[in-house]
Amino acid sequence: MPKKNGFDRYLDYQYRQSGSFFKALFDAIKQADSENLARVALGFPEEVRAYLTWTTIGIDKFAQGCATHDGQFEKFCAEYGLKEYEQGGK
Length: 90
Hints:
The protein has helices spanning 6-14, 20-31, 34-43, 45-57, 59-65, 71-80. The protein has one domain. By secondary structure, it is mainly α. The chain contains six helices and no strands.
C-alpha cells in the first residue's frame, strides 16, 4: 500500500481520524492568512496543497491526489458520489 500523502492526511482530518499533530496543523492551515499559509507551505507543501484543493478546486481533483485509497477514501467516495474511484478505481 502506498505511503499516506498530504491528501490522505487531510481526508483523515476531515473524518476526525488524525493524530493530534495533524489536527493542529490542519486547524492552523484553515486559520492562516495568505502570508502565513505560504510559510506553512514551506514545511508542509502536500498538506497545504490538499487543503487548497479541497476548498478551492474541487473534490474530483482532491480524489485524484489521494494515494492510499483506504477506508477513509472509500467513505469519502461514497459520500460524494465518486463511483469512478471506489473499489480500487483510479
